[in-house]
Amino acid sequence: xxxxxxxxxxxxxxxxxxxxxxxxxxxxxxxxxxxxxxxxxxxxxxxxxxxxxxxxxxxxxxxxxxxxxxxxxxxxxxxxxxxxxxxxxxxxxxxxxxxxxxxxxxxxxxxxxxxxxxxxxxxxxxxxxxxxxxxxxxxxxxxxxxxxxxxxxxxxxxxxxxxxxxxxxxxxxxxxxxxxxxxxxxxxxxxxxxxxxxxxxxxxxxxxxxxxxxxxxxxxxxxxxxxxxxxxxxxxxxxxxxxxxxxxxxxxxxxxxxxxxxxxxxxxxxxxxxxxxxxxxxxxxxxxxxxxxxxxxxxxxxxxxxxxxxxxxxxxxxxxxxxxxxxxxxxxxxxxxx
Length: 338
Prior knowledge:
Layout: E1 2-15, H1 17-28, H2 43-53, H3 55-68, H4 72-79, E2 90-96, E3 99-106, E4 114-120, E5 126-131, E6 135-141, E7 146-153, H5 163-173, H6 177-184, E8 192-198, E9 204-209, E10 214-218, E11 222-224, H7 242-254, H8 261-269, E12 278-279, E13 284-293, E14 298-303, E15 310-313, H9 314-318, E16 327-335
Parallel strand pairs: 1-4
Antiparallel strand pairs: 1-16, 2-3, 2-11, 3-13, 4-5, 5-6, 6-7, 7-8, 8-9, 9-10, 12-13, 13-14, 14-15
Helix pairs in contact: 1-3, 2-3, 3-4, 5-6
């Protein structure tokens, strides 16, 4: 077995959304090449949809455009998350006793590997893992709202935003699970996704979303993988979802064990866990484990497998009382020895 190093950069950005774009561009130097496919991309439509649903993020793209010396059209195509074709991925989330813990499963070559601390002038401060620079895979904002995405099916698609962009919109503008539900049901969706959400009051929900219809499923504890369970939406599931169903059953068993956050983190992050995967070439390898605590705004992050987690207070960062490392490191098993 060969272990490969995985490095996640820690990014801090503050100011107006335009300034946040400028700052990220200066830090990056060039666009992250995620090899994402855009077919017959309509730049005007993407711009209009962003002006309607997230004009602040359009300002961020304008700042990024200036900083990278690239036309706005290029940034709309590569970073807006509008009408992008995206490969299959997996994710597992468990929420209980005011703790949201999650594994994100994908491929390292399509992973931004950036944990972004963002404090905009006209939006809620948040921390989360980025995708296509502007989007977020999961995150928590200063109000204690936590949200993450779970891919369900790409066979049914329409013009709309990827879940990564929708997660970012939720973090910027929502204070509660109810507000998150309202926003998720308002924006146009590209594919079929689950959104797992919890807030500081402990209200949790899975929003099962297709391009045509979005429905909320409230549950305590919250257990979320990669298939729909609401009867009206089950027809949109993939034919092969036994893995997602088995992970859900495993989470159900965890709910009865009364585990601490540290114990749960180990269950999620150990390389031999039923929730940890090494199928990186099939876009289904675990890249990070993260636990968000809405009640006290604490975060626990592990990169790769068997992590020694980095634990921090987002509240302290907001107050300027926390010095962050430049990066977090971990290891993943990409290949076998020949």
